[in-house]
Amino acid sequence: MDKLPLDLPNFEPGWVWLVGGGPGDAGLLTLYGLHALRSADVLVYDALVGEDVLKMAREDCVLEYAGKRGGKPSSKQADISQRLIQLAKEGKRVLRLKGGDPFVFGRGGEEALALVEANVPFRVVPGISSGIGGLAYAGIPVTHRDCNSAVTFLTGHNASGIVPDNINWEGLAQGSPVIVIYMAIKHLGDIAQKLMTHGRSADEPVGIVSRASTPSQEVLETSLGCCVDDVAKSGIEPPALVVIGEVVRLRSGLDWMGAMNGRVLTSDPLNLSKNVDKVANA
User: Fold this and answer.
1) This prediction's pTM
2) So what's the pLDDT on residue 101?
3) In the chain, is it the N or the C terminus that has fewer CB atoms within a 10 Å radius of its CB?
4) Domains and CATH numbers, the chain
């Protein structure tokens, strides 16, 4: 962290920093995030924080696990917030480290509001959301000029663990060319059926990215009509992202990680040159 062309903010005792740890690859951590890891007295971290990120913490920093994983024993949100308040009131430099970005399906807003109520000062350090960075590691861009100028991000389940009932599925299906869904594996069949009921094609490309940006990353390319069966056959497991739309087809040209392992990429994954030829010959 020496000779940086910026002044790093002081991490004061009694403060809580809500920091995004990125999708998993430690190299995607921000400079402010690294500074927080090297300054914190206590690190309260989520299940999705990469192990290599945790290794960057100060040697005498106390690590406390506060992960929340579907279907497994998890810390209650209210208890996590109270723990952050308690530690800050003890004069500790408290780092609340979350996978991805703390304000993107990370409950960072809930924790920050609890700190406000308790008069605990805090700072937010954004991180690279897995819905963007994780997909980029899979060679799937969330936007591409030849495919879409809009993208929708949503969660596959609400606070009760079921498919959100406050989503306008008809409007989503007909209005968003690309849909990125966090935590969707458990309810993928229900979600796919809702989208197809409201007009999405069963042949529409679907990409499923498990453990994005980590050495254990897996990518499944399938279609909306076959995704449930293909997930079951593949054995791919959460944590996983689901992306629906034509951008998934771009992976045959943008899978840069696959290319490092010998995959031959195509420069025209959308077959646009053929369409141009058809128009020219019409």
Assistant:
1) 0.91
2) 97
3) C
4) 16-128 (3.40.1010.10), 131-271 (3.30.950.10)
